[in-house]
Design a protein that fits this description.
The termini are far apart. By secondary structure, this protein is of the alpha+beta class. The protein has a domain at 3-52 and 123-177 and 267-346: FAD/NAD(P)-binding domain. The chain contains ten helices and 19 strands. The chain has helices at 15-26, 57-65, 109-122, 167-171, 229-233, 237-247, 296-310, 320-349, 356-368, 371-381, and strands at 3-11, 31-35, 52-55, 76-78, 80-84, 90-94, 104-108, 125-129, 133-138, 143-147, 152-160, 176-192, 199-204, 208-215, 219-226, 255-257, 262-271, 275-276, 279-281. A hairpin with a 3-residue loop joins β13 and β14. The model has no long low-confidence stretch (mean pLDDT 87). Strands 1, 2, 8, 9, 10, 11, 18 and 19 form an eight-stranded mixed β-sheet that branches. Strands 5, 6, 12, 13, 14, 15, 16 and 17 form an eight-stranded mixed β-sheet that branches. A three-stranded antiparallel β-sheet has the order 3-7-4.
């Protein structure tokens, strides 16, 4: 049985956990990264990954500083957005409105992970992949972690980046309120007959939300938040492509399915806190949001950057005052995004109030005519 001490242990080697581990290693910290799956190479196929993320320019710059920016040949650019309501409302805004080149980029999960893991293996980071965690304890000075093979690790700070069903969160007794939306996000990629023009398109249908996100070339990635995911995942490739094209009024002509449809359940998770003694949570372990605004992973990268920046000059990176500062710094941004996405979900899915559908669509069209408000939306979308 071995005992190994570090400045920092990160549990979870996904996008957010790996980026935080790299940021801390760049500070010269002794970092251990614990990941349940093997990281001895992520096989990159020639096909397109249906699990994609909209990455803000701010977070793209964060990844670039880590030397782990996504391969730009695999990245789509969002230069404009076109949002439609269920009763004729419409809102359009563009990066050009704020003098920017892009509102966001669309990047594949698998390729971003590969770039991050490549940097992790090149950095001075102790990687424990394929590891099972069994026990977590803390005292006033250290966090102690026991792995399934008996290895014992300790550090001044343990960071849980282990997803929405966070084991770390449960071990520390951080209760979370969970609101199931009853929807699933169905994702798939398509080739499109007509150019998408670097425009992200979104339709609110009253019972679902459909988004078409631009990939390089004449390709798009779909995210359809729906109460009936099986209706889509059970379709043939041709049936799925036709259904998605018809739902978007065939604006990009005929579609051809590139990846099969898959679905994941949507929930709003609000933990009672994101810190405990010698422990901090980041990413989905700390919060989830409805994907209709595409901001989930952006919030996670911002967690990683803010927490890392707040520890640059710290003698004790796990000191309670440092963790409280991180919690306060992230509270407003996270709550604002959660309440905004949850409010939009309720606004466009609530059918019980007479006239609400006309009111929400009129609101979209009104905002479309208000230049200053549109520019503010563009700045928000770009993470400014």
């Amino acid at each position: 049985m071995s005992q190994t001490s570090f400045d920092l242990i990160v549990l979870g080697g996904g996008l957010v956990g790996a980026s935080f581990a790299l940021a801390m290693a760049q500070q010269g910290r002794r970092v251990a990264l614990i990941e349940g799956q093997r990281l001895d190479g992520l096989e990159l196929e020639t096909g397109w990954d249906a699990r994609i993320y909209a990455i803000s320019p701010q977070n793209l710059a964060f990844l670039d500083r880590l030397g782990a920016g996504p391969d730009r040949s695999r990245v789509g650019t969002v230069a404009s957005m076109d949002v439609r309501g269920d009763r004729g409302g419409r809102l359009r805004f563009a990066a050009a409105d704020i003098g920017a080149a892009e509102l966001a980029v669309i990047a594949e999960n698998r390729w971003m992970l590969a770039a991050l893991w490549q940097r992790v293996h090149a950095a001075d980071i102790a990687v424990f992949d394929g590891a099972r965690v069994e026990r977590l304890q803390t005292n006033a000075l250290r966090a102690f972690l026991t792995l399934g093979d008996g290895t014992q690790l300790d550090a001044a700070l343990l960071v849980g980046a282990d997803g929405a069903n966070s084991w770390v969160r449960g071990q520390m007794g951080l209760e979370a309120s969970i609101k199931p939306y009853g929807q699933s996000g169905v994702v798939a990629n398509f080739a499109c007959e007509k150019p998408h023009g670097d425009c992200a398109r979104q339709w609110f249908f009253g019972d679902s939300v459909l988004a078409w996100l631009p990939l390089p070339g004449n390709r798009l990635s779909m995210v359809w938040s729906t109460f009936e995911p099986d209706r889509l995942t059970s379709l043939s490739d041709a049936g799925l492509a036709d259904t998605v094209a018809r739902a978007g009024n065939r604006e990009l002509g005929a579609l051809t399915t590139l990846t099969p449809a898959s679905a994941f359940p949507l929930r709003l998770i609000r933990p009672q806190g994101v810190i405990a003694r010698r422990v901090a949570l980041i990413g989905d372990a700390a919060h989830t949001v409805h994907p209709l605004a595409g901001q989930g992973v952006n919030l996670g990268f911002q967690d990683a950057e803010v927490l890392a920046d707040g520890l640059v000059d710290a003698d004790d990176i796990g000191a309670w005052a440092r963790l409280r500062r991180y919690e306060r710094a992230r509270r407003e941004a996270v709550r604002t995004m959660q309440y905004t996405c949850d409010g939009l979900f309720e606004l466009f899915h609530r059918q019980t109030m007479p006239g609400l559908d006309r009111l929400r669509n009129a609101g979209l069209s009104l905002v479309d005519r208000l230049g200053p408000l549109k520019r503010q939306l563009a700045r928000h979308a770009a993470g400014r």
